[in-house]
Amino acid sequence: MNNESNDGSRDALLNESILIMTAVEAEREAVLRGLNGSVRFDVHLAGVGPASAAALTAGQLAAGGYRAVISAGIGGGFAGVAPVESVVLATSIIAADLGAETAEGFSSVDELGFGSSRLPVDAATAGRWAQLLAAGGLQVCAGPVLTVSTATGTAATAAALAKRVPGAAAEAMEGYGVAMAARSAGLPAFEVRAISNAVGPRNRAEWRIKEALQSLEAAFKILTEVL
Ligand SMILES: O=C(O)c1cccc(C(=O)CC[C@H]2O[C@@H](n3cnc4c(=O)[nH]cnc43)[C@H](O)[C@@H]2O)c1
């Protein structure tokens, strides 16, 4: 991130923390291990799903003192884009199932005229983080990360989502809620997902949660040097 504010109050800005929201405790612990005691971060639980994530993120932000928010955790990776154990940095955070089913197919809230399902992420920052993680030896990609209320469990839904959002890299369940709360507070939002499983037919036994948590820890170990 660019730490220079327009009025030159760089020191004041650097005194502010970055809020990191994870869905569950195991993700929180992985992020904390990566941060290795750095006091410039607060890591809190968002719960599972966008509604819980938005409410709990807004609650944390109400105290003030933050300069950015990151939604972090494990996630599903789209085939051919984000393999298991890789790390995805969001270039946009998209509520992929927020809309209406019609006879012609899915209509997003954007098409319905009810707001935006797509929240942009500062591309320069996401790109820089991706370069750093790659230089640190992690398998990384930058692309759209979808937020869904129902984790995908079939090849048909995976294909529909990939068609709905060309280039989709990952899906998870909290990013849009975290980013909406950040936007309401006037703060930039980011999303970091370590891939535990492929988006597609559900087979929980195949999820590589331990390995994904290790990737998440490794990602924050690198990011803590630049955030
Ligand atoms: O059982 C465990 O030990 C464990 C440890 C860490 C995390 C979990 C979770 O189940 C986290 C749920 C969280 O993960 C995201 N996620 C992961 N894969 C997907 C997916 O394919 N589609 C959607 N979401 C996914 C999601 O953000 C959940 O909140 C368990």
Automatic annotation (TrEMBL):
Pathway: Quinol/quinone metabolism; menaquinone biosynthesis
EC number: 3.2.2.26
One Gene Ontology MF term: hydrolase activity, acting on glycosyl bonds
Domain Nucleoside phosphorylase, residue spans: 45-219
The keyword Hydrolase is annotated on this UniProt entry: yes
Reaction equations catalysed: futalosine + H2O = dehypoxanthine futalosine + hypoxanthine
Cited PANTHER family: 5'-METHYLTHIOADENOSINE/S-ADENOSYLHOMOCYSTEINE NUCLEOSIDASE (PTHR46832), FUTALOSINE HYDROLASE (PTHR46832:SF2)
Function: Catalyzes the hydrolysis of futalosine (FL) to dehypoxanthine futalosine (DHFL) and hypoxanthine, a step in the biosynthesis of menaquinone (MK, vitamin K2).
Keyword entries, A-Z: Glycosidase, Hydrolase, Menaquinone biosynthesis
Protein species of origin: Paenibacillus enshidis
This protein's record includes keyword Signal: no
Protein name according to UniProt: Futalosine hydrolase
A Pfam family annotated for this UniProt entry: PNP_UDP_1
Annotated transmembrane regions: none
Similarity section: Belongs to the PNP/UDP phosphorylase family. Futalosine hydrolase subfamily.
